[in-house]
Amino acid sequence: MIIFFVIASIWVVLDSAWLFDKIDWKNTAPSEMTASQYVHLTRLHWECLVLFSAAMIWSTFIV
Which of 53, 46, 44 is nearest to 5 (CA)? Predict the structure, then answer.
């Protein structure tokens, strides 16, 4: 299970870097983004939420 969290964490970091590279690292306000970039940002938020939730649930049952 730990390998799942490691792979998912790497995916989220690389996905974040790709998105912020596409928006030039400074135009992070949703009003400055294209629709495609905003959808990507929303998906990234969901990825982080799912990863954090899964880690919390998993750690609850392990301890």
Answer: 53
